[in-house]
Amino acid sequence: MVSPVSGSAEPLSASGRSSEKLSLPSLQSKMKTDPEGYDTELHLIRSQFYSALELFQQQAALNFSSITGVGADPTVAKDLGDRAMFLAHVTPFYPKQLAEFPSDLAAFLKSSARTLPSGLRFHVTQALILLVNRKIIDIKDTLALFMELQTLDDRNLRKLAFSHVVHSIRRMNKNHKNEAKNRALQNVLFALLQQEDEAKAKRSLITLSELHRRKVWFDDRTANAICMACFHSSSRIMIAVLSFLLDYEKIENDDEDIDDLSSEDEMAKNPQVVISKETAYKAHHKGTTASKKKKKAKLQRAIRSMKRKQRLSSETSNNSYYSPLYHLKDAQGFVEKLFSRLQTCNERFEVKMMMLKVIARTVGLHRLILLNFYPFLQRYVQPHQKDITNLLAAAVQACHDVVPPDAVEPLFKQIVNQFVHDRSRPEAIAVGLNVIREICLRMPLLMNEDLLQDLVLYKKSHEKAVSAAARSLITLFREICPSLLVKKDRGRPVNPKAKPKAYGEVSVLSNVPDIELLEHEDEIDGSEDDESGDEAASIGSDDGIGDSDDDEKSQYTADDGSEDEDVEDDENDSIDEDEGDSDDCDEENDDEDNVETEELDAEEDDDYEEVGDSSKPDDGAGDIGNEDLKAKARKRKLSDFEGQLIAADTSLRALKRLAEAKTSGSSSDLADGILSDEHFLKIKKLKAKKEAKTALAQQGFKIPSSDQLSFKRVDPSKLEAHVRLKLNKEERLALVKAGREDRGQYQARTAIKQNKTGGLSNRQKEHKKYMPLAAKKAKAQRSRQEKNKKRLRSGKQFRGKKAWKQ
């Protein structure tokens, strides 16, 4: 250190200044403009700073308290703080003279932080932050110091140090991320988080959580370190970590709400956010240079605000779930260790519930097996249990298809026996049915036929919540296993033979997924056209029955053609299934097809006879004509029967050859097993079409996959029964008055008309309208006639006996 200069007045007098009139802010501005001309002043102030610094260090070495000694004088502390801030401001202009000043200031703050007065400590910390922001000293060297400053009992200093650490790391990762530097900073915070000191671990946890929430350190290391803090020896640290993990989505939503509010405030301040061509042209071409600069800045602010809104809207539209639990390296070990701590801890019930939720969320997210967890939950499954909906939501979350059904079955039966019975309250029955539905959605093998039929009977309950829960259970099993339902409850399922997979059953892919869609491309694309064509054909056939002989002939031939097409389609399907068979099998198929065509023709004869019988009139002449028509039709059909057989045989053989050529061609296209980008795009489009058809057939109900269920959080409020209780008179009056708040004060129509500020009404205009004499006479005559009619009507009414007529 440099010793203090004794003759301080001499150099100041040489430069034409007096030491008594020394003003640090004015000297600071002049030294920035002319650094070389103020070396003597810098040397003086630097010497004064180091002399005061040495006194404070000697005081700390002698263990003096800050109340007595040198620190008791507020002027000395103020001079030291002012000179520290002064030197921090001018350090960039004197890098050689003040090369050791940043390290000396950091060492002084580290050694004497607890003994310094709060005001001096705050000023020295501000000076050090200024040096870090000017990049004269690195954040890596001062991070541990700033984290230690946060543990002091000084609220303003703690807030300043915390905001500086967060903003420095955020600014460092704004443009690009320096992984080596981030890793070094993370190691400092991770080491503090693992310490036994609760204050340091808490401040480290808060800093890591804030950086992770702001998506600055949004990596696996940070998420894993936060999750592992659940096993800290301090229960407060454990509770803080559990609340962060559980409320992560809530924190994000609050942050988005704050961003939305701030954007609304910006919109209120700057209402002209819409960018037009005129404003862009004015910003670049009109006005002076200064005005154009202002317009360009305003335009850029508007563009940034619009981009920010688009980003926020895209983030809100994308409901992509994220949780730090997803980045656990050893999820099974984490769950087992936390569950063992749950079994042995003596914390209050709310803390145990938080641990239960985190364990269940991790088990469902990573699809883990923790068999002891379900009997532990079974002890708390009672309708009168505190926070029972949260507990049941955790139980639902911990169920997935990898868990053996035998392990969950006792818990499942406990829920059924405790919640769903005739003596239970409607709210409890509705909650139980909703929980059973959610568990069966994840593990359908738990349900048997007898239990399901008993539960389904609650659809007849007079309580709306109970009947709705029972109907939702019916809707679920219509899709996953309709055979468990009674026939009247099955409705019209999409797949009547649907059954859940057995435990451990996995569908192994032997080829590219959905590659069979390429072979049935024409069927998927033309299904809608076929349906519309079938409808049109059926309408035309219904309209043309029994009109005339020509109509009957055309209808007959149309029926023949349609049935031939059906036969050809059936044959084509059989070809697709048996394309690898031998020629002998083909001959046998041909014989069978001939037999089938004979049977179809016989059915046509019967149908034709039925149509003729249904269309016969009552008179006898019509009967004779119909019998003649039947005879002619039979003769024509018998004569053409052999020709039709030959034609059907040749057409079927031609269809066989065409189908074989088509299948060989399609197989030759994909024979090499290499699919191009066009093939994958086509598969994607065909899959979307098929899913759309399935969704339309399912009438809006779609069962999510196991991966979607593992990511999905179970909301406890959705398991509750929302039963609306009857309101009393005071509550009804309050609702009525609340509905009248926006309504204005009542006024009569005459008062409203009198207060009218606009023009005259049509009736008032009619009174002032000039009319010819004939029109006036006609109007007067009409009024007289109306008066006479009114007088005649009033004379016929009985008004009672008058008192004076006696």
Automatic annotation (TrEMBL):
Renumbered to this chain, the Basic residues biased-composition regions fall at 765-806
Q: Acidic residues bias: where? A: 523-534, 560-612
- Which keywords does the record carry? Nucleus, Protein transport, Ribosome biogenesis, Transport
The SDA1 N-terminal domain extends over 86-461
Intracellular or extracellular location(s)? Nucleus, Nucleolus
Residue ranges annotated for the SDA1 C-terminal domain, each copy included: 758-803
Q: In what ranges is there compositional bias, type Polar residues?
A: 752-762
TM spans (from-to): none
Region annotated Disordered sits at: 1-35, 523-629, 744-806
Sorted alphabetically, which InterPro entries does this protein's record hold? ARM-type_fold (IPR016024), Sda1 (IPR027312), SDA1_C (IPR048292), SDA1_N (IPR012977)
PANTHER family from the UniProt entry: HSDA/SDA1-RELATED, PROTEIN SDA1 HOMOLOG
Q: What does this protein do?
A: Required for 60S pre-ribosomal subunits export to the cytoplasm.
What's the family?
Answer: Belongs to the SDA1 family.
Name of the protein in question: Protein SDA1
